[in-house]
Amino acid sequence: MVNTDPQDVRRAARIFKALSHPQRLRIVCSLTERRVTTEKELIEEFGLPQSTVNRHLSVLKECGVVAANREGTRVLVELAGPVASQLMDAVCQWVHPETGEQFSGDLAAGLDDPAQIP
Asked: Which of 77, 99, 102, 103 has the fewest CB atoms within 10 Å, i.e. is most exposed?
């Protein structure tokens, strides 16, 4: 029997809701490939304002998908643990079942506006 504890279900729903935003999904996919990066590198990679990246990271940290630690003036960002990595591996395998490859930048390109998602 599957555990359907209401708290667990709510937590899972928050995680999936956080990952449903295209930019947050792009951030997590990038972390899946690199494992650790800096907030500054994410800003440069996605061409988003610092405040936007920071807001997305806050949502992802709040639900336990990513962890961020300050190291001097840099903020290091990584997946929060093996479960987050396993989840993203499963998503990537589902999206690319024939190869299991990671999301490419092209896959998420143009999905800056959630209204564009079918």
From this structure: 99
